[in-house]
Amino acid sequence: MSGTTIFIIGLIAAALLAVAGVATIAGRRGPAPTSSVGDFDRRAARKDRARRKAEEQAVAAEVTEAETVAPPRAEPDLSDPLLERKEVSTNEYGVTRRKFLNRSLGTLFGIFLGQFALASLAFLWPKLGSGFGTPIAIGKFSDLKSQIEQPDGTSVPLFVAAAQSWVVPFDESSQAGSSFEGLPVVASDGSGTGLMALWQRCVHLGCRVPSCVSSQGFECPCHGSKYNLHGEYEAGPAPRNMDRFAVELDETGELVVLTGEVFQTARTTNKTAAYPQGPFCV
To answer: How far is CA 121 from the centre of its chain?
Structure first.
């Protein structure tokens, strides 16, 4: 048999059992009781009346006795407690609930203002010790040049995370008449080829611009702005050249990037580096 058939048979069996149970319970009930009326007993009625009367007389006697022995009622005290109150000093009374709540709220608000003031001061205080925004020594000038300049004549820009900079070579003879003339953005050891530090961010919307070795430039993956090896504008929505930091050589021969001094230069037609020199990366 299928499950549906078994389920229907179970329902029918349950219904039959219920009907049988109801019939059994109904059959066991006896006949309805019939009312009977007995003869009225006058003697019993007189005894009941006499008993109730005796009970009433006993209750009345108890009430009378209680009123007789009850003490006289005391006169009410009509004095005004406000006129008889005693002055309490502040030391005896202590701090009221209102004073406690006011002082607590004032203390919490004062702590909040103090923390906010300290956080604001820490945020606005200039970082004069170290880190981005201060002069950062990134390595020996000669070592940096050897890492950047390749034997085949190409250049691989060196990224320095601490200074957020791309370090690139720059021919000192090209600075005159360029967008960088008169700016302290090229450091040199007298060999004729200096180093320049370009800020890594795109001047369009601030995306990080990676270098493209094949094209010998920088190409922004966000909106397609393109710059040559010296960060000069070539294409895309960027409004100007890449920003660059002031650089200098210290007495030990290390290149120092002054990340607190940023220079902006406009687009120019007098380019100092050829672009592209190979396939684009973006």
So the answer is: 22
